[in-house]
């Protein structure tokens, strides 16, 4: 340690720089102390700091500590000087107050909060001190930078009064502190203190506390013993064992009691006074019934023992949850059992948490059956101590098992945890999270504080898509998936849990006639990990689900639960054929094949058709929904054909091979067909062409016809040797629907075949047409410059259309239109002309009447300024005539365009003093003319610049508008003021030399004219005086004596004008001066009574002009006093006669003589017990006389109190218990008292005066109570 340890409040000492490890200071000079040096305590070297944190940042061998403090103080003085320099310049310019305040707050904060980091001795303040210093500097910054007045004079006056008191002038013309006169403690002296001797007592466990021991945390119980008005030297405690009922006496010796006192003295409630109650604590470490048997005081007498009762110390209660299974199924009972140990009746609070949702419950009155305890029939708070009993069986700890069985209706995590346990005495053990964590670490299997149960959902299973009525058909030798649907009581499948499925199986041949299982059905069990893993079955027969379970729970089988698996017979095909012959030529044209099938419909038959000599074969398939069908095989071309049936499939078996072949020589009949039968659209006057294919043996002859409007036009073509020809119609001159039909074809054998083929031709009734539509009834439009307009197009025909037009510049443009009413978007003015059109299939024509469309621009708005009152113009700058400050003025603005108009302008103000930020304003006009009001509120130069213009059509555009500026100068109004406003000028009632003049100050352009208003006191109408041709800015105002009246008059400045024609009318709030025309002064008393007491104030009212000279006599001495105001006051310091003889004011030399006399009386006094503190000890029932002696003028009225006794030093005030009021006609009085307390007088009154102690209010008689005797 470096130096002597000091208190926090002590003045800090400079840390020593030398002899840090040598001899320590202290001890008497000349005495040497020799001691063997203790071994050094090894210190852990810091890893970062290179020097001890107690040393300054700048080592003291470089700069010593006093010099560092001097340098820091010098820096602070420099900052303060800089701050005063800124304050001085702020007096001249006030625009930077906020910036300077923020600057100095930042500098002060940096300096103050950075200073402790230097660790300079004596300047290492704590954070609270630094914060107070910073706040003080910030307040000083506010007062300096915002020029807040600093009440220096008032502060010094208040400081002076706080030390010296508020002194007043007394009747002897010297200052006196009125508190020394008003609160004279010598007027009431003495006290009578009566003390009634108390009776001692001792009580064991007065607060009826409960105690328990657990041998781990609570190893002992501290029994409280409260003693009152006694000092015991020995105590005996009686202990009765709870298990054996044997008695044991524990003796507490005097030394133990002394140790108990020493330990109890550390408590706040402990009192060193003998008569004050004290609570001592005696520790015990064994359970049992304890009673206070004997207490001996210092006189070897036994102390009374109040409320002798037993205090029971029992083992602390405890509770455990017995081990149980941690996995249960939904719907089962929890079957949790708790074992509670303690003194019945017990209470256990536990917490049940289901899926993170907690709920607390409590078990009350836990006790064994047929158990009787006095704790169960009385209030627990009053049962902590029980009457003395010999039988202690009811207090022994009991072990009770409490079952907890409730339905587990929700799946998830259930947690039962013990919160607290309480025994019959109220001893409570609370189990914290730390106790539960300790159980987890110990992993005890015998007992635990919480039980975790995982409640699982019960599984369910049923079949879907298979039943005995809807069997599952599978090919022989193949396995099928049993359509099992898994679920649970939670409505969905249990995730990540295998299902154990049980089912019985009866083969197809063993199923009974009623469809039931046979007696020898096979029982099987399969495990399925999830629904994604199928349960495969293969043998044909009846499968029925009988059970399902998981690793934890057994579930239910739902219907349908049975499935019938069948193996149908394989599909088979048998064929019979018959040739098909042509009726005309008699040659074969195909085969008619009958198909007979066996299997499960539907069937799919795949066959191939091969033509002899052909390079490719044709594969075909046929779907048959029944067991018999017929197919006609008729090739379109002649040749040798072979038909091969390749495979057959039914609903069960797929791709079973076949090898059935059929052969035939085919010569088909002649036929003709259109290559495309789609409708053809043709333009009017155009021809239509179609491709036709021919089959059979040529050459051919074909007949066709064109049908239109009920008319048929037949045509014939012969000697056709090709298999494909083109048929072309003639020009189709009529619009509408045409039908081209094939009538017949004739082959080489002359066989004529009727034909059905036909196609439709749709001929457009008219040509496509295009033309401009109209906008508001005409093909001409006006639009805003830069905007877009859509020119309407009217199209006839079938879209899409290709339109050509010439734009405003003469260039041809192309447009693809998709609708009949299309638009052309244009942005430029000019003539637009349509030139050509074509629709989806036909060329068209342009409507001559709607060929052209004219587009024009709407003109932009314009603004100009009226030449009225314009004195000068240069380009776009207009100078308006000058005007006075505050007068109304405006300029007319003319608009051209589409109303309403909106002009945005910027107002730039250059005032004569200071600066004003530019303002952006708007001028709105509903017609073509608007007035812009000029700003004349403040004198200066104004400039209004129009920057933007907007009308109903156009938004502001800087490219199309040239700014216009209007300038005007606003002259300041003249002003006039008194040089000393509020001053009162004194005049005599008659004119005399050397009278005062009234100076005034004027601002403006001279010469000035001024009007002055004089209002006399008591008159309603003022007088006006006009002054003209005042050539200077300062003038001395002289009021004509003829305008003055006796008394006071108010002089005000009403109007001033200057040479620029500007004037200012001053209102009634303008500061004014007063003129007083005086007569002789007077003095009159403010109180109606002539008798005063010492300490009272004698007040007089003065009329005239202050200051006054007041002449008076006191105790035969003539005195002169000066009164600065209209009131003369003196403090009555001592008794005597006070007489005022005259008064004189400062307005005249006249002295008014008078005689006003006031009598000052002395204060009454009282002495209790000869003016001393008298102490009397009495026994209960005794009485004592209290003597009161008075001084003053009878009769006497006094009030005295009885308060609680305190220490003899009287440093603490007692509590007032009683207050009484008495009257005495004599100079002394005796009162008898028998109650304990301190008796003292608090108020005294005689014939003229009264006195009360500070803080005593005896005016409320309802608060008084008579003393008891």
UniProtKB/TrEMBL annotation:
Transmembrane segments: none annotated. Residues 1-32 are annotated as: Disordered. Residues 64-148 form the Nucleoporin POM152 N-terminal transmembrane domain. InterPro entries: Ig-like_POM152, Ig-like_POM152_1st, Ig-like_POM152_9th, Ig_POM152, Pom152, TMD_POM152. Residues 201-313 form the Nucleoporin POM152 first Ig-like domain. GO terms for biological process: nuclear pore organization; protein import into nucleus. It comes from the Eukaryota. Pfam families: Ig-like_POM152 (PF24312), Ig-like_Pom152_1 (PF24519), Ig-like_Pom152_9 (PF24527), Ig_Pom152 (PF23664), TMD_POM152 (PF24097). Residues 567-671, 882-972 form the Nucleoporin POM152 immunoglobulin-like domain. GO terms for molecular function: structural constituent of nuclear pore. GO terms for cellular component: nuclear pore transmembrane ring. Residues 1081-1158 form the Nucleoporin POM152 ninth Ig-like domain. Residues 458-563, 767-848, 1164-1250 form the Nucleoporin POM152 Ig-like domain. PANTHER family: NUCLEOPORIN POM152 (PTHR28206). This is Nucleoporin Pom152. It comes from Salinomyces thailandicus.
């Amino acid at each position: 340690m470096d130096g002597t340890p000091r208190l926090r409040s002590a003045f800090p000492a400079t840390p020593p720089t030398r002899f840090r490890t040598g001899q320590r200071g202290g001890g008497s000079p000349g005495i040497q102390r020799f001691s063997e040096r203790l071994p050094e305590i090894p210190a852990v070297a810091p890893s970062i700091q290179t020097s001890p944190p107690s040393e300054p940042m700048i080592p003291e061998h470089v700069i010593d500590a006093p010099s560092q403090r001097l340098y820091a103080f010098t820096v602070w003085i420099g900052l303060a000087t800089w701050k005063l320099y800124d304050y001085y310049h702020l007096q001249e310019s006030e625009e930077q107050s906020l910036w300077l305040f923020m600057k100095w707050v930042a500098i002060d904060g940096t300096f103050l909060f950075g200073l402790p980091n230097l660790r300079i001795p004596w300047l290492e303040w704590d954070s609270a001190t630094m914060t107070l210093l910073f706040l003080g500097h910030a307040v000083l910054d506010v007062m300096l930078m915002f020029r807040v007045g600093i009440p220096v004079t008032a502060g010094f006056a208040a400081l002076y009064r706080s030390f010296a008191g508020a002194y007043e002038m007394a009747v002897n013309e010297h200052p006196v502190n009125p508190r020394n006169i008003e609160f004279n403690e010598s007027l009431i002296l003495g006290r009578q203190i009566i003390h009634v001797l108390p009776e001692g007592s001792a009580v064991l466990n007065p607060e009826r506390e409960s105690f328990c021991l657990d041998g781990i945390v609570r190893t002992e119980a501290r029994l409280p013993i409260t003693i009152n008005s006694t000092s015991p030297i020995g105590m005996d405690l009686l202990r009765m064992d709870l298990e054996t009922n044997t008695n044991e006496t524990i003796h507490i010796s005097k030394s133990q009691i002394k140790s108990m006192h020493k330990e109890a003295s550390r408590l706040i409630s402990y009192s060193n006074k003998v008569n004050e109650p004290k609570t001592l604590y005696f520790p015990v470490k064994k359970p049992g019934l304890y009673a206070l048997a004997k207490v001996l005081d210092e006189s070897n007498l036994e102390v009374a023992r109040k409320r002798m009762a037993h205090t029971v110390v029992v083992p602390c209660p405890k509770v455990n949850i017995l081990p149980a299974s941690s996995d249960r199924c939904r719907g089962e009972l929890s079957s949790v059992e708790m074992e509670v140990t303690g003194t019945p009746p017990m209470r256990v609070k536990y917490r049940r948490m289901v899926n993170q949702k907690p709920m607390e419950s409590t078990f009350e009155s836990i006790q064994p059956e047929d158990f009787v305890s006095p704790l169960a029939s009385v209030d627990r708070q009053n049962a902590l101590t029980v009457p003395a009993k010999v039988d202690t069986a009811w207090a022994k700890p009991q072990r009770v098992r409490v079952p907890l069985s409730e339905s587990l209706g929700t799946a998830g995590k259930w947690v039962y945890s013990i919160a607290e346990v309480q025994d019959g005495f109220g001893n409570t053990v609370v189990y914290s999270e730390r106790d539960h964590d300790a159980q987890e670490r110990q992993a005890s299997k015998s007992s635990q504080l919480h039980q975790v149960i995982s409640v699982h959902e019960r599984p369910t299973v049923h079949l879907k898509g298979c039943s005995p009525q809807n069997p599952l058909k599978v090919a022989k030798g193949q396995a099928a998936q049993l359509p099992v649907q898994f679920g649970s009581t939670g409505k969905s499948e249990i995730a990540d849990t295998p299902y154990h499925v049980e089912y019985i199986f009866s083969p197809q041949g063993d199923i009974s006639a009623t469809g039931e299982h046979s007696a020898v059905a096979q029982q099987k069990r399969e495990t399925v990990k999830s629904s994604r893993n199928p349960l495969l079955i293969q043998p044909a027969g009846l499968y029925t689900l009988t059970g399902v379970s998981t690793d934890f729970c057994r579930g239910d089988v739902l219907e349908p639960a049975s499935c019938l698996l069948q193996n149908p017979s394989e599909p088979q095909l048998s064929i019979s054929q018959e040739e098909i012959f042509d009726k005309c030529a008699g040659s074969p044209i195909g085969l008619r094949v009958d198909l007979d099938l066996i299997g499960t419909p539907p069937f799919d038959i795949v066959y191939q058709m091969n033509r002899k000599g052909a390079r490719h074969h044709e594969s075909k398939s046929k779907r048959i929904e029944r067991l018999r069908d017929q197919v006609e095989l008729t090739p379109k071309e002649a040749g040798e054909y072979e038909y091969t049936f390749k495979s057959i499939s039914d609903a069960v078996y797929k791709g079973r091979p076949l090898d059935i072949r059929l052969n035939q020589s085919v010569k088909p009949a002649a036929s003709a067909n259109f290559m495309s039968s789609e409708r053809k659209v043709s333009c009017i006057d155009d021809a239509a062409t179609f491709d036709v294919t021919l089959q059979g043996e040529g050459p051919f002859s074909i007949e066709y016809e064109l049908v239109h409007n009920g008319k048929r036009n037949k045509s014939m073509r012969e000697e056709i040797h090709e298999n494909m020809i083109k048929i072309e119609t003639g020009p189709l001159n009529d619009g509408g629907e045409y039908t081209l039909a094939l009538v017949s074809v004739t082959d080489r054998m002359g066989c004529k075949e009727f034909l059905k083929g036909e196609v439709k031709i749709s001929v457009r009734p008219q040509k496509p047409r295009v033309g401009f539509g109209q906008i508001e009834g005409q093909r001409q439009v006006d639009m805003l410059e830069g905007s877009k307009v859509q020119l309407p197009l009217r199209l006839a025909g079938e879209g899409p259309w290709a339109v050509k037009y010439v734009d405003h510049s003469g260039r041809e443009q192309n447009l693809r239109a998709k609708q009949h009413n299309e638009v052309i978007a244009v942005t430029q003015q000019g003539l637009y002309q349509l030139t050509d059109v074509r629709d989806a299939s036909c060329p068209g024509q342009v409507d001559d009447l709607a060929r052209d469309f004219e587009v024009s621009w709407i003109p932009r708005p314009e603004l100009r300024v009226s030449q009225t009152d314009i004195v000068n113009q240069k380009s776009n700058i207009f100078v308006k005539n000058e005007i006075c400050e505050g007068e109304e003025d405006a300029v007319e603005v003319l608009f051209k365009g589409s109303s309403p108009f909106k002009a945005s302008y910027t107002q730039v103000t250059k005032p004569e003093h200071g600066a004003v930020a530019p303002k952006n304003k708007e001028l709105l006009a509903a017609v073509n003319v608007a007035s812009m009001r000029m700003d004349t509120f403040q004198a200066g130069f104004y400039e209004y610049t129009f920057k933007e213009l907007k009308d109903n059509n156009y938004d502001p555009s800087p490219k199309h508008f040239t700014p216009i500026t209007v300038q005007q100068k606003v002259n300041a109004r003249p002003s006039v003021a008194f040089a000393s406003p509020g001053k009162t000028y004194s005049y005599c009632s008659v004119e005399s030399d050397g009278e005062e003049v009234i100076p005034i100050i004027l601002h403006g352009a001279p010469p000035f004219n001024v009007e002055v208003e004089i209002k006399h006191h008591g008159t309603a109408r003022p007088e006006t005086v006009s002054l003209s041709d005042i050539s200077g800015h300062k003038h001395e105002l002289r009021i004509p004596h003829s305008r003055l009246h006796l008394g006071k008059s108010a002089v005000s400045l009403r109007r001033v004008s200057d040479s620029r024609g500007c004037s200012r009318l001053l209102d009634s709030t303008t500061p004014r001066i007063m003129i007083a025309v005086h007569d002789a002064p007077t003095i009159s008393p403010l109180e109606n009574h002539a008798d005063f007491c010492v300490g009272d104030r004698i007040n007089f009212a003065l009329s005239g002009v202050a200051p006054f000279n007041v002449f008076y006599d006191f105790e035969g001495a003539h005195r002169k006093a000066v009164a600065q105001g209209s009131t003369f006051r003196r403090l009555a310091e001592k008794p005597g006669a006070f007489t005022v003889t005259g008064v004189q004011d400062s307005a005249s030399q006249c002295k008014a003589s008078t005689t006003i006399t006031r009598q000052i009386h002395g204060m009454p006094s009282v002495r209790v017990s000869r003016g001393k503190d008298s102490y009397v000890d009495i026994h209960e029932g005794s009485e004592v006389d209290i003597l009161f002696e008075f001084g003053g003028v009878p009769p006497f009225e006094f009030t005295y109190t009885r308060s609680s006794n305190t220490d003899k030093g009287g440093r603490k005030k007692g509590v007032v218990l009683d207050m009484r009021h008495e009257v005495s006609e004599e100079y002394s009085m005796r009162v008898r008292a028998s109650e304990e307390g301190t008796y003292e007088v608090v108020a005294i009154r005689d014939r003229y005066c009264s006195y009360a102690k500070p803080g005593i209010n005896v005016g409320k008689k309802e608060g008084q109570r008579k003393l008891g005797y």
